[in-house]
Amino acid sequence: MRGSRLDMNTKRMTINFNGEGYPARLINVDIPNFSGKRLISIDRLDVALMTKDGCYVSEEARAIDEDVFLYVPESIIVADEKTLVQYVKEMAA
User: Fold this and answer.
1) End-to-end alpha-carbon separation of the chain, Å?
2) pTM here?
3) I need a surface site. Which of 43, 60, 71, 93 has the fewest CB within 10 A?
4) Calpha distance 64→44 (Å, rounded)
């Protein structure tokens, strides 16, 4: 994954963009049309990747965004895995 560092034991990651680290997690998702491991990160990263007009700030930003399945609030990314997976299921449905 571009700009990412993975901790295989906890499935927690940091996505680095423009000198800042953004928390992310790799989780197993099993919902219609989406199953397998998916990268989840925080809303603040989504905002950093885009201009106010809705364009990517750079080609690197586009590549990162294409790797992220869903952006969630920071309080959800640090929750236990069951809570995070349930939130993703609800938002992606």
Assistant:
1) 25
2) 0.84
3) 93
4) 13
Instruction: Report helix, strand or coil for 27.
Output: strand
Mapped onto helix, strand or coil, the DSSP state of residue 73 is coil
Strands 68-72 and 34-42: parallel
Compute the distance between CA of residue 38 and CA of residue 30 in angstroms, rounded to an integer: 10
H-run or E-run covering 44: helix 43-49
Q: How far apart are CA 51 and CA 31, in angstroms?
A: 31
Q: Do residues 11 and 1 make contact, with C-beta atoms less than 8 angstroms apart? A: no
